[in-house]
């Protein structure tokens, strides 16, 4: 997504029985800064400044699918379930709901009971009907870009078009104001992890502004929008109707959160690193620029305010199979890419390990294999031989990247590598604010497209189906995540088959094999398993290394007085 809410990084096991689903969350939260932990007594008051190089793609909770947008949304909206990351292990808990939900009928029906007394910013109570409406609005063609799980799993979701024409989705039932029931078209053992995503939050119908809701999000979280000028600044202030007693995840330590957009990332890095003036109370949500990463990662003076968060995700290059039809040419690209120069553009070894699979280590279903060059620098001899077998074509290909310096260097590395096998690359920089909404739109096709993806929760089910189910190309033309345009009936059928498996070990093996099949098709070039590194000023406290979102979580943030 993308640098999206496609999240997670721990191992996890799921056991399904006829009457219950038990989810055991193993592994530990990811390490990072030792100085700004969630522990200690937080101070009250002050303004936290967030410095980001670009505005959020969306903060409409049903539309956002980036880690930055979703992380910010957690200050504004409550979801049915959520992640408590204050301990050594991330723990799934009830958020709006009193607990993590109750499955029945073989995990095809899930019931949640809402906490009493959770309030919107105007003092009215959050109801099950608000949550139902919030989930339903994501089905509208005007509210696009968010995760596909509701449309995939809710009965009738494949044909429902949202609530704006007065129609409701009957598979979401609200027998009373505090109870919501979801009827699924298949068993989903980890459905209550899906409901921790922002799309499963309430929206009061009376305050829904449709496609412009990004700048008018109605809050039931600790902060609410005071002002929002797109691409410039968003200011959040305290929501006086939020109650700590009803919220097991968040705190309300700050007077304001002031997000400023538009500076070059390298300039932001240096400003916060200098730790002067207002930079002392600032943090960035976007990764340290590649040009700064190596030096900042090794700077002992930054240790207490440097956050290195291993992501359960992948940085990759998608090859458009509709446009690059010859398998030999795609395989040649796999061998020709020099991952050492590519990783250098993103900051070197501090950014992450070289990748050979689409499923990162730590995700259930990961399988170790490498179908192409054993040398990260590539194998030009093999690449040239494959181009010869293909008839020595001299194609010209377009490459889509974000219009930021890190991506410019990355694009140059790809261009240089492919020129050595006779491929001319034309680089197409796209405004970072609109990058994913542009490349995910099927009207905007490129031969090669940069992407990154973070699993939504620690299972291959949130990676391979979302990135390689070719049916979404037609079904989701404005939010197609299949950047490779892989539409193989056998792959699609296997995705369906695996999705219905209730034996977690069997499912994991099948996902590993599916990953290998996708790489045999040379649909994508895996580049790096990512780390995300951010930095804050010395007076910022309470930051949690969010191992679900691969972001510095601000739910306990405070300003040291």
Q: What percent of residues adopt helix (DSSP H or I)?
A: 10-25%
Total beta strand runs: 23
Summing up helix and strand content along with how strands pair, one would put the structural category as alpha+beta
Helix count?
Answer: 15
Please give the largest β-sheet.
Answer: 6 strands, mixed
Strand content: 15-25%
Give me the oligomer status: single chain
Neighbour order of strands in the largest sheet: 15-19-14-18-16-17
N- and C-termini, Cα separation: 38 Å
Q: What is the arithmetic mean of pLDDT?
A: 90
The general outline is globular
Compute the CA-based radius of gyration. Answer: 23 Å
Low-confidence blocks of residues: 1-39
Summarize the structure.
23% of the residues lie in helices and 22% in strands. The chain has 15 helices and 23 strands.
Q: Can you tell me about this structure?
A:
It is a single chain. By secondary structure, the chain is α+β, with helices and mostly antiparallel strands. Helix content is 23%, strand content 22%. The strands form 7 sheets. The protein has a 6-stranded mixed sheet. The chain has a 5-stranded mixed sheet with strand order 10-11-12-3-13. A hairpin with a 2-residue loop joins β8 (172-176) and β9 (179-183). The chain is globular. 56% of the residues are buried.
